[in-house]
Amino acid sequence: MERRRAAVVLGTGLVGLMCAVAAAAQEPSSPPPPAGGHGHEGARYHELLPDIGRIGAQVGLGAGPSWNPYHVGAGGQVAAFIDLPLARNRAGRLSYEILLGLSGGKSDTFTVTDPLAYVANLARGASPADALAGPPHAPYRVRRLVRTRLRLLDVSPFALKYTLTGLDRARLRPYITAGLDISLVTTEEQPAEDTPALDPADIALSAPGRAPELAARGIPAGEGSLALGGHAGAGLEIRLSHGLSLNFDYRLTRVDGSHTLHAASSVLGMHW
User: Fold this and answer.
1) Rg (Cα) of the chain, in Å, rounded?
2) Is 97 helix (H, G, I), strand (E, B) or coil?
3) Which of 220, 270, 264 is nearest to 101 (CA)?
4) Which H or E run contains 121?
5) Which residues on adjacent β-strands are paired with residue 261?
6) From the CB of residue 258, how many other CB atoms can be counted at a distance below 10 Å?
7) Which CATH class is domain 57-271?
């Protein structure tokens, strides 16, 4: 529970920080000087000239499918981000990005073995085969069908994004991104719908035990775990107007060393 509260506080603080930065960037410190440029350069002309007050920052909100780690499979995800410009050259621009994402899903059913129930059956005099089989050969159920319910909160406090501006006349901007991530992973094993309910003795035995099948899938022990990783991604920004864009984004996130999260998003971006 403490880790879940910490995740909520962390996520709320980052969203507040993103909103505060966006609000501060929109407040002009002094009246802009008279426009000094002339020409028709499309979206780039209006965005990159400093004399009309556009700094090239962006906030966005997206959603789409996800392919989750720990054999959970397909699910859904939502994400929010803010981009702040760092540098630009003739080919494109470099931005600093803060990203916050939440993904989840449910796995297919699989069998787990309760080691404490197995030992309890042996203690009651059952043979190893009967102890593993459970009722009616032994008093306690050892094998159960379950599904893993996954929730993964992904926070990237530092990422870099490079956007190509050579296709501005067509209102298209390809981009690539990479950064560091901190992930909070919470999982829960839920009984399959067709599995008989556990009696109180089975519940008491299964609560402290950990099935070896969960360890084989790499599912973290306990209510949640923090993992340090990173992400890389690419996408295409379609500029709808001077201040609005539609982005199509793909992101690959490495979670806890050997596990990966894939996310594809349709993103609504707002620029200033």
Assistant:
1) 25
2) strand
3) 264
4) helix 115-123
5) 253
6) 8
7) mainly beta
